[in-house]
Amino acid sequence: MNIKEREAERVIPATRFVLRPLRRSDQGLIEMYASDERVARMTTSIPHPLPPGSIQQFIEASLQDAREEDVWVMDGSAQGSAEVLGLIGLKPMDRNQSEIGYWVAPAFWNTGLASDAVRAMVEANPQGVDTMFGSVFQDNPGSARVLTNCGFEYLGDAEAFSVARQAKVDTWTYLKKMK
Q: Could you tell me the end-to-end alpha-carbon distance of the chain, in angstroms, rounded to an integer?
C-alpha cells in the first residue's frame, strides 16, 4: 500500500473540515501556530520558544509505522478554509485505552472547531479503544468544555508538566467510555 492509500484510509470527516494524517508540507503552518506562546502554554509538549527543527522531527515521527501517537490535521481547505486549523492526536495506552490531545490555531479559537474535531474522533474511534481520556490545564476552561460537550465525564484533578511553562500545572482529567 502506498502513502496516498494509507493516508486516505485514515481520513475522518468532521462538520467543517476533515481530519487527515500529517504531511511534510504542513510544517510551515504548524510551525507558525505552535511557535505562538498562547498555543504552547496550553500543551504539555510544545516548547516555547520553539527550537529549530522540532516540528520537522514531530512530523517525521508521526509518519513512522512505529509511532507513539496518531496525529491528524484539522484541514478545512476543501471547505474554503485554512489547510491547517489545528491538530488532534490519540496516544495509545494500556488496557485498550487512549489519550486524546488537541490544539487549535489562535485565529480559529472560539469557533467550535475543537469540539467538532473531538466529536469526529470519538465517533470514528480509529484506534478501536474502550476508553478515551483527556486532560486539560485548569486555566483553560474552554478546553474542558470541549471535552464535556463531547460526552467526556470529569474524573478528577491531577497535574502535568508543561514544557513551555517549565512547571507542573494543575489539570482536570476526563474520560469517555466508548463501548
A: 31
Cα angle 11, 12, 18 (rounded to 5 degrees) comes to 85
Q: Which of 22, 47, 53, 23 is nearest to 35 (CA)?
A: 47
CB burial of 146-164 (b: ≥16 within 10 Å; e: otherwise) equals bbeebebeeeeeeeeebeb
d(CA 96, CA 129): 5
Q: Are 19 and 72 in contact (CB under 8 A)?
A: yes
User: Which residue, among 39, 40, 34, 11, has the nearest Cα to 23 in the 3D structure?
Assistant: 11
Burial of residue 107 (number of CB atoms within 10 Å: 0-12, 13-18, 19+) = exposed
Amino acid at 132: M
Supply the pTM of this predicted model: 0.94
The Cα-based distances of 8 to 18, 19, 114, 119 in angstroms read 11, 10, 22, 20
- 92-131 per-position pLDDT tens digit: 999 999 999 999 999 999 999 999 999 999 999 999 999 9
Please determine, for residue 61, whether its predicted confidence score (pLDDT) is greater than 60: yes
